[in-house]
Specification:
The complex is a heterotrimer of chains A (402), B (299) and C (70). Chain B is an alpha/beta fold. Chain B has helices at residues 19-31, 58-61, 75-87, 102-115, 142-148, 161-173, 194-203, 220-231, 268-277, 289-296; strands at residues 10-14, 34-39, 47-48, 51-54, 68-71, 92-95, 118-120, 126-129, 133-135, 151-158, 178-183, 209-214, 237-241, 281-283. Chain B has ten helices and 14 strands. In chain B, the strands form two sheets. In chain B, strands 3-4-2-1-5-6-7 form a seven-stranded mixed β-sheet, sandwiched between helices. Chain B has a seven-stranded mixed β-sheet with strand order 9-8-11-10-12-13-14, sandwiched between helices. Chain C is of the alpha+beta class. In chain C, 23% of the residues are buried. The chains are: A alpha+beta (402), B alpha/beta (299), C alpha+beta (70). Chain A binds chain C through residues 302-304, 333, 335-336, 339, 342-343, 346, 365, 368, 371-372, 375-376, and chain C through 3-4, 29, 47-48, 50-51, 67, 69-70.
Chain lengths: 402, 299, 70
């Protein structure tokens, strides 16, 4: 669950972290009014869930309300990496003497939370890590014990900061770390933190990501921010195909048949489960195939659920054939999936023998499953044929053209 | 020998009356595993496949030896169940539950480390030593499990439960067989990583080589490469890296909770280079694993 | 329209409403329903049959599950 910059800053504000004056605006008129209220130079920033805003022209500076309105109008109409902004943030422009970077995230290797801090803010943190490792500190901390300020202090002092700056930055980083823990974030980042010419230190840009699995525990915050419970906030908005697949999956609680991502190819994929889907998608591409979609089936979905997903994929323009493939299955049943895909093909008006390029799901109840496939003339292979070989056969069969 | 579990391993299932757990209990019993019973609060006195159901873990640990616990409860109750098992003195906990927020996972993993308890998972299928026992639903019905997991000499570790079975099956078909297979879990934070399990495989005379299934996201592969350099481990490892297509799609989540490319180090390309440099053979195709193992074993 | 499974109910079941009710209850995928004291199959659910045999165990010889693909 990614937050927009203006939402992330609201969260920071609640943590007592100092911020520049700003207003979230949805129209050019609102932007003009905001700039008037700020009464000084402003920066207008696209509110979009994508990096690279500056390069894409999504960040502009203005000296007057009129100029602010003009920039806001342009930015509101400007897609960035295919995403339209939900508004602009009009913020007072401050002269910056020094920039810092602070992020809190999880380190799966240490199995702890970690503060990453640098006195080289504003640039790509991976670049700092590679070229200037002495300007970056990593400070792990426990998620079990209450957070204590010294941990933030160690992170800041770790790159050689001292004096008043150390104390001001410690407060900001400690607030960030507490918010990270309290709100089940997977990432809480301020980049840059700016030291102004008057010596005060404020958060200039922020990026927060809440764990979707924990979102239910933070409905109070989400409500306050105006985030709807249905909002997924993926890296790109879902297509109609993906929304329809999500409906197929949520309409029936028996097993999974969804997590679909659309691609621009001719071979529809009905694949599973988590790791099997990743493996098979690669295998199809390695064999020169062009997948029309990624998806995941597993957890023993019902016949109707598998049939509905099949129908949806078959109906997709450009899909010539479909491949039904999984790793050796334990709890998903071969015969149930076989019934589902055969039924889905027929209900979509296709002959399963023609439409299904290959069926490769070995495992539980495979004898019953193979009997069904045989009856309907569907090409199938058993566990002696590897996943890559099955993917290659699917691609070959699709080239023959339906 | 085997790692983590053997034919005498006794265990309970927390959440045994749940839909998936009832099936898992049946499958474990049919396989010959020493399942003692299970826990579901408020259901004391019930039976599942003739085994007792108790209200708490202590009801078992206070009267008998319990080597392991499988946690199969909904995500909102999973952390509590794990802590209960740790405090009851159980030393191996297999956490099957998916979708536990990582803060809770970090908390119980830290507590387990303090108490000397090993955690496998979350979001895994469990551990199996073919012909000896299985702890968890790995492999499904006993008969299909016996078919996919033949006793043998290859250790398996996998971030995907399903792919654990797929790889084991290919090793069984190729006549190599499996010593112990561990479905380590697909989450961003897990109790036992490749590098943490490797010393056990290194010490196991039955294990001659290791097969690993891996994915984008996280740093577990780097940790494994470091272990190989540090330990001087001589057992050949064949790794397979799925999700290569994800390198082109940063920020998109496919598959498990732990699979997301957030930075260069999370990409498969970077991980493959790192594993290769550590002397680990990376299979281009999943079906190549048995052949590559045979080559590395000098056969 | 069911494509894979047909379930035949012996006419004698209709003389025994208690048996009909029991058959309907054991099915995990709701293939049976009791209407006007008569046991009927639910067309939309037939293909969901998991071949679990619970119905044939509940009423030996009185319910037959036919695999149309065999």
């Amino acid at each position: 669950m990614r937050f927009y910059e203006f939402e992330s800053k609201q969260i920071l504000k609640k943590a007592g972290i100092p911020l520049p004056k700003s207003h979230f605006c949805k129209t050019a008129d609102q932007a003009a009014a905001a700039a008037f209220e700020i009464a000084g130079p402003v920066v207008i920033k696209s509110q979009v869930l994508s990096g690279g805003r500056m390069k894409a022209g999504g960040v502009k500076f203005a000296d007057s309300p009129g100029e602010a309105a003009e920039h806001a109008r342009a930015i509101l109409a400007l897609p960035i990496n295919g995403l339209m902004p939900v508004g602009v943030l009009v913020e007072e422009k401050r002269a910056i003497a020094q920039e810092y970077f602070a992020a809190v995230t999880w380190d799966g290797r240490a199995k702890k939370a970690v503060i990453i801090f640098s006195d080289m803010g504003g640039i790509d943190i991976e670049e700092i890590a590679e070229k200037h490792p002495e300007h970056l500190s990593r400070t792990h901390f426990s998620a079990s014990r209450p957070f204590s300020d010294y941990i933030a202090k160690n992170a800041v002092a770790g790159v050689g900061v001292t004096g008043n700056d150390l104390n001001a930055l410690t407060r900001i980083v400690a607030g960030l770390a507490r918010t990270f823990l309290d709100r089940d974030m997977t990432l809480a980042e301020i980049n840059p933190i700016g030291k102004l010419e008057d010596g005060s230190i404020i958060a200039l840009d922020a990026h927060m990501d809440m764990e979707s699995e924990a979102a239910r525990q933070h409905l109070d915050l989400l409500k306050e921010l105006g985030v709807g419970p249905e909002e997924k906030r993926q890296a790109r908005p879902p297509t109609q195909f993906e929304i329809d697949a999500e409906k197929v999956d949520s309409a029936d609680t028996r097993g999974v048949a969804g997590n679909l991502t659309e691609f621009d190819g001719n071979l529809g994929l009905i694949i599973g489960a988590g790791g099997g889907s990743l493996t098979l998608f690669d295998a199809v591409r390695a064999a020169g195939g062009r997948p029309a979609n990624y998806c995941e089936i597993g957890g023993n979905p019902s016949v109707s659920k598998a049939a509905n997903l099949t129908k949806l994929i078959c109906a997709q323009p450009g899909v010539e054939k479909i491949a039904v493939m999984m790793n050796v299955v334990s709890n998903t049943r071969v015969d149930i999936v076989a019934r589902g895909v055969v039924k889905g093909c027929i209900e979509a008006g296709f002959d399963p023998a023609e439409k299904i390029a290959i069926f490769r799901i070995p495992g539980s109840w495979e004898d019953e499953g193979f009997a069904i496939l045989k009856k309907y003339g569907v090409p199938y292979v058993d566990r002696t044929v590897s996943m890559d070989e099955a993917a290659r056969m699917a691609v070959e069969n699709t080239k023959k053209k339906a | 020998m085997s790692i983590l579990v053997d034919k005498d391993t006794t265990f309970i299932i927390q959440g045994i009356t749940g839909r998936e757990a009832v099936t898992m209990a049946r499958e474990c019993l049919d396989y010959g595993a020493k399942l003692l019973g299970g826990v579901t609060p408020g259901r004391k006195g019930r039976e599942v496949h003739g085994l007792p159901v108790e209200d708490n873990v202590l009801a078992f640990t206070s009267r008998t030896r319990v080597d392991a616990a499988v946690v199969s409860v909904p995500p909102g109750f999973a952390a509590d169940a794990v802590l209960e098992a740790i405090d009851a003195g159980i030393k191996l906990i297999v956490c099957v539950t998916e979708r536990i927020p990582r803060k809770q996972v970090a908390q119980f993993v830290e507590y387990a480390a303090e108490k000397g308890t090993r955690i496998i998972g979350p979001n895994c299928l469990g551990v199996i030593s073919p012909g000896k026992t299985r702890v968890g639903g790995i492999g499904g019905a006993a008969e299909s499990t016996r078919r996919a997991f033949k006793p043998g000499k290859i250790g398996v570790m996998s971030r995907s439960g399903g792919m654990t079975v797929e790889i084991a099956n290919s090793l069984s078909e190729a006549g190599l067989g499996v010593s112990t297979a561990v479905s380590i879990g697909g989450d961003a934070i897990i109790g036992s990583t490749y590098a943490e399990l490797m010393p056990l495989f290194d010490a196991d005379p039955e294990t001659e080589g290791i097969a690993i299934y891996s994915e984008p996201g996280g740093r577990a592969e780097y940790e494994l490469a470091d272990y190989m350099a540090r330990s001087g481990s001589k057992k050949p490892i064949i790794a397979f890296m799925a999700g290569r297509f994800m390198d082109e799609m940063p920020g998109m989540r496919f598959g498990h909770a732990g699979t997301i490319v957030e930075g260069r180090a999370d990409t498969t390309a970077s991980k493959i280079a790192n594993l290769t440099a550590a002397g680990i053979t990376v299979a281009e195709k999943i079906g190549d694993i048995p052949r590559l193992l045979n080559e590395r074993l000098g056969k | 329209m069911a494509m894979f499974i047909r379930v035949d109910i012996d006419p004698s079941v209709q003389q025994d409403p208690a048996l009909g009710k029991r058959i309907a209850e054991v099915c995990p995928v709701d293939i049976f329903k009791v209407a006007d004291n008569r046991l009927e199959t639910v067309e939309a659910n037939l293909d969901e049959c998991t071949l679990c045999d619970l119905c044939t165990i509940a009423a030996p010889g009185k319910v037959t599950v036919v695999k149309l693909y065999r």
